Amino acid sequence: MTKHTQDFINRVQEIVILLLDKQPLLEESKSNDLLAIIMERYAVQKRQAVTYLSEARLLINQLGKQNIKLSYLKAMYDREFLFRKSKDANDLRLALEVIRDRDKIAGLYVENYKFEKEPAPDLTNISTEELKALLHE
Predict the structure, then answer these.
(1) Segment holding 64, helix H or strand E
(2) Which of 59, 68, 88, 112 is deepest in the core (most CB within 10 A)?
(3) How far apart are CA 134 and CA 137, in angstroms?
(4) Which residues of 48-87 are buried (b: 16+ CB within 10 A; e: fewer)?
(5) By the 8 A CB rule, do 35 and 46 touch?
(6) Distance CA 35, CA 125 (A)
(7) Domain boundaries, given as residue ranges, for the chain
(8) Share of the chain residues as helix, strand and coil, in percent rounded to the nearest 5
(9) d(Cα 73, Cα 79) in Å, to the nearest integer?
C-alpha cells in the first residue's frame, strides 16, 4: 500500500477480513453489494469505497502470492527429503519417481503436448528429386 493514514489502513484490513470471512463477496458480480456495505459501514462516498475495496483486493492478492511461494518451497523441500531417503534405502525407482514429481512441480515436464498443426513429415529417406518437388509446390 502507498502512504495512507492509520484509519485508512485499519479500514482496508477490516475489509480484507470481511472478504475472507464471506468468500462469495470476493466475486466481481458482488462488487455493488460490497460497495454498499462499505459505504454504509464507514459513511463514505462510492469513490472512497472503491478505493478501499481495490486496496483490500490488492492485499488479498499479495497474500495469495506469498502462500503460493511458501507452498512451492515446502513441496520442493519435501521432495528433496524423499529423494535422500529413497537413495539411502537404495530404492532407485522411488528416487526416479521423486525426481520426476519434483521436476513436474518445477514445470520442467510438459504433459499431453498437442500439436496445433500436423507434425512435420519424416524427410530422412526422401530422395533429392522428391525434395525438389516439395520445394517447388
Answers:
(1) helix 46-88
(2) 59
(3) 5
(4) ebebbbebbbebeeeeeeeeeeeeeeeeeeebeebbeebe
(5) yes
(6) 69
(7) 6-113
(8) 75, 0, 25
(9) 10
Tracing cell 454504509 back to the chain, one arrives at: 40
Tens of pLDDT along 4-53? 788 898 899 888 888 877 766 566 667 788 899 999 999 999 999 999 99
Q: Indicate the residue type of 42.
A: Y
Please give the Cα distance from 36 to 43 (Å, whole number): 10
Per-residue pLDDT of 121-136, as tens digits, reads 676 777 778 777 767 7
Which grid cell sits at 99? 525426481
